[in-house]
Amino acid sequence: MTTDEMPNPDDFAAYLNGITDRIAEEVRDEAFDRAVTDAKRIVAYAAELRQAAVTAGFSTSAAESMALDFWGIASGIRDE
Question: Which single residue of 2, 21, 44, 46 could bond 71 by disulfide (Cβ 3.0 to 4.6 Å)?
Fold first, then answer.
């Protein structure tokens, strides 16, 4: 086919559908990877917060409550 010829509409539609599906899949994969990374980071920060609170003299129960509050707010599950 020369550059002056138009592609077959059915072939072009199939190409667009294929590329759209592939792009959507890559976006979903990237979003999932980012969500997992963010979740791991939030849990790690909550654990650090708990440890810092215990080290500062708070009871284990209070420290765990602080960590849980942080986790809920940071993950968007709970409002401030």
Answer: 46
